[in-house]
Amino acid sequence: MPKDKGVVLGLVSSKTPTLEQLDELRRRADEAARYVDAARLAISPQCGFASTMGGNPLTEADERAKLKLCVDAARAIWGQA
User: Fold this and answer.
1) Whether the model pTM is above 0.90
2) Are 39 and 3 in contact (CB under 8 A)?
């Protein structure tokens, strides 16, 4: 990875309403940090919430929960900005 680039880890599924476990997200971010400086990492959903014509089986509340999980995970892993 070029030193001036960041890496966004698409660790949160946009396909199912099940929320990932914070400990698992932290473990995977720690694993990525073995290859790229942790300060250059970020977390996000894997892709958009309507990545197919029919969309995915998530409600607006599910989508909000997934985005909140990304924020909570980022704060837990990298601290508050």
Assistant:
1) no
2) no
